[in-house]
């Protein structure tokens, strides 16, 4: 079984039950159902820096990181997943490619997997895990550089959780870069509805609606306690 580390980069504003479920679905699929069998060593959640200018509703990283920690601690099933504050602590926003290069160095040096001494670090794959909606942003003007997309897909690769209503296969086939590296894209054999998102959570809080079932109970309490997303 090929060792692999999964990393999810995003705002996690806030973390939802869907974010955690995505990791669990991926681990099961990669270890049990994928044509190439993997051993999933670690899941990494890397919250974006506060200076990410595309997110006007972004709350400070300290809150987002604390909510991730609380969510992860709700179940021992999450023991293999970690939140890492490297990206969030930087003085400026980082490109996803630079974040991946950092974690690749951490893996090869042994620092990231220090608790797994018997793993040959040079054999470990590092892949981005995300929803299908993220790869579709590759076509948004001025958001991604072609050279970054090419390096991300060729040197690392993606594990994609498809969403209802997303024609991801057609998108990949027609994309001028993704179509060249289809073998580096793993599509999970699980369709998820689009009805759970951080945006929906924020909008519900602002309206005073319930967010039970969208986030872990401890995250809901944290949002209430710190009066987040009210404006």
UniProtKB/TrEMBL annotation:
Enzyme Commission number(s) of this protein: 2.7.7.1, 2.7.7.18
Catalytic activity: nicotinate beta-D-ribonucleotide + ATP + H(+) = deamido-NAD(+) + diphosphate; beta-nicotinamide D-ribonucleotide + ATP + H(+) = diphosphate + NAD(+)
Annotated ranges, domain Cytidyltransferase-like: 9-203
UniProt superkingdom: Eukaryota
Main location class: mitochondrion
Keyword annotations of the record: ATP-binding, Mitochondrion, NAD, Nucleotide-binding, Nucleotidyltransferase, Pyridine nucleotide biosynthesis, Transferase
PANTHER family assigned: NICOTINAMIDE MONONUCLEOTIDE ADENYLYLTRANSFERASE (PTHR12039), NICOTINAMIDE-NUCLEOTIDE ADENYLYLTRANSFERASE (PTHR12039:SF0)
Family as reported in the entry's similarity comment: Belongs to the eukaryotic NMN adenylyltransferase family.
Function: Catalyzes the formation of NAD(+) from nicotinamide mononucleotide (NMN) and ATP. Can also use the deamidated form; nicotinic acid mononucleotide (NaMN) as substrate with the same efficiency. Can use triazofurin monophosphate (TrMP) as substrate. Can also use GTP and ITP as nucleotide donors. Also catalyzes the reverse reaction, i.e. the pyrophosphorolytic cleavage of NAD(+). For the pyrophosphorolytic activity, can use NAD(+), NADH, NaAD, nicotinic acid adenine dinucleotide phosphate (NHD), nicotinamide guanine dinucleotide (NGD) as substrates.
Name of the protein described by the UniProt record: Nicotinamide-nucleotide adenylyltransferase
Organism (species): Dinothrombium tinctorium
